[in-house]
């Protein structure tokens, strides 16, 4: 993001608008987005026991459903996506998120859909990824990579993060400061 965009973002999240995205801006952004989350948070914490209790065993494809999205102009490698395989517990919420994104000027992120279910470990680790439970989605990876810091080096719009937050989804861009393409249904 450019200097003026960071100032606008800081204003939006209640941080001092100085154009420098430091610890105080990060804290205000986390506070702001967590404040948008439902009071009765629908998703489990991120520890493996809670994830297994709520979602079942990682890689269990019997927990997945095909979520129809052919009406939302979602694309993977330039091709229309007709359905997304996701955990049955996240399907209604994910559908609402994607519908809301499709109504925004930032619907371009849907044209760079990068997947939900993928039975693999977390990057650089041995524990299962939330993708292995069909409970995470990646959008616009070409400009929001795993090592790219948000918002200085990636461009995931705050409006997209707000849409996910309202459904209780955790965005790694705002919660850990990088990997802004990744959103997961955890606290």
What can you tell me about this protein's structure?
The chain has one domain: Muramoyl-pentapeptide Carboxypeptidase, domain 2 (2-Layer Sandwich). By secondary structure, the protein is of the alpha+beta class. It is globular, with a radius of gyration of 16 Å. The protein is built from 6 helices and 7 strands, in the order αααββββαβαβαβ. The strands form 3 sheets. It has a 3-stranded antiparallel β-sheet with strand order 5-7-6. Strands 1-4 form a two-stranded antiparallel ribbon. The protein has a two-stranded antiparallel ribbon with strand order 2-3.
Topology summary:
Elements: H1 3-13, H2 23-36, H3 48-55, E1 64-68, E2 75-76, E3 79-80, E4 83-87, H4 91-102, E5 136-138, H5 158-166, E6 170-171, H6 172-175, E7 182-184
Antiparallel strand pairs: 1-4, 2-3, 5-7, 6-7
Helix pairs in contact: 2-5
In short:
The chain has 6 helices and 7 strands.
What structural keywords apply?
6 helices; Muramoyl-pentapeptide Carboxypeptidase, domain 2; 31% helix; three-stranded antiparallel sheet; alpha+beta; 187 residues; two-stranded antiparallel ribbon; single chain; globular
Number of helices: 6
Number of strands: 7
Distance separating the two termini: 27 Å
Structural class: alpha+beta
Return the domain count. Answer: 1
Strand and helix order: HHHEEEEHEHEHE
The CATH class label is Alpha Beta
Quaternary structure classification: single chain
Radius of gyration: 16 Å
Strand order of the largest sheet: 5-7-6
* Fraction in beta strands: 5-15%
CATH topology: Muramoyl-pentapeptide Carboxypeptidase, domain 2
What's the helical proportion of residues? Answer: 25-40%
Average pLDDT, all residues: 96
Largest sheet: 3 strands, antiparallel
Which consecutive residue ranges, at least 5 long each, have pLDDT under 50? none
Tell me the CATH architecture: 2-Layer Sandwich
What is the general shape?
globular
